[in-house]
Design a protein that fits this description.
423 residues, alpha/beta, Aspartate Aminotransferase, domain 1, Aspartate Aminotransferase, domain 2, four-stranded antiparallel sheet, 37% helix, globular
Amino acid sequence: MTITKKDAIKLDNEDTLAKFKDEFYIKEDRYYMDGNSLGLLSKRAEKALQTSLEDWKEHGIDGWMDGVEPWFYYSEKLGARTAPLVGAKKEEVIVTGSITTNLHQLISTFYQPEGKRTKILADELTFPSDIYAIQSQLELKGYVHEEHLVQVKSRDGYTLMEEDIIEAMKEDIALILLPSVLYRSGQLLDMKRLTEEAHKRGIIIGFDLAHSIGALPHQLHDHGVDFAVWCNYKYLNSGPGGVGGLYVHERHFGKKPGLAGWFGSRKDKQFDMEHVLTAAESAGAFQIGTPHILSSAPLMGSLELFEEAGIHELRRKSLSLTRFMMELLNQELPEAGFTICNPLEDERRGGHISLKHDEAARICKALKEQGVTPDFRAPNVIRLAPVALYSSYVDVWDTIRILKGIMENEEYKKFENTRNVVA
């Protein structure tokens, strides 16, 4: 059966989440398909930032305790509100740092090489920053990363097989770090299975949730995941460079942080100014420095939208949007040279579509010229992310029709097939 624009309109009319689109600043005649890199600004996020600015203006330093949203407990409050999105207890989550500084913190905490167990297991498709952090931590422990970092190979260059990851869980592995969703292909890994297999072998395991938090529900506590990190500026719409977050399972509370800092103190002890750290008895212990309030504040407003919409409903719509997009691609562009790299099955797919094409860089430039904001990943991948909170089915329909026109008229050929400095 041929899909028409009337079908897209009907789906929008039936969409119980459609009202949330009005919460965001969206330019007319623009189609934003890059929420998996940077989410759009919402009116709630703007208001929350303004609240913290007003607290600063009104109270000065007393904003730490006397503001509308006191800054001293801000990270803990945000952690408690984020916890339902990752399936954790509120004490297991803290909003702090950046994704890479949090990785350094947790790897330095949980990577304790002993005897034969000296290696860290990752994969060859993960985001480069994670690998840089692992290499750095290995070297700080005196190990050569070329020998002590094990990276699981991909069979097709885009996805991973859980069986291959499990096969690599050898007796010399001390710690595992994996993405929940692969950034290039959008593959969702089976975190429950991988955690169980790691623990059978006595291996600590953590996940990078950068491309899954806010797009799909998690069960970190129930699955027994040891630790996790994420950024909040993609699906959670906290703004460019927004503060990150981390999770540590409660069984690890009391473990000495690898990187100690003042804000990891127990709250009632912090201003005793002692030179012996009394660490918080929660994930708060893994904070290092003073919270970046103005970079955290937008998240406070953004999380209101997630509480109202519900992460399970957002996941349902996200899957429906990406499925609709793939059906349109197959219908409208069957011979245009695109290969869908992401898994087709709902249970194995994150929140974005991954298209391989030899002319990917110049196609992305043509899309931008015609009002579509895509994402390019070298060397040949176009990522398109219709985000459940602010993308409609008609947006998806129009995006694919624009792409079809670009390919049929070869409009991409006026651009160079090279990435920009920032891709």
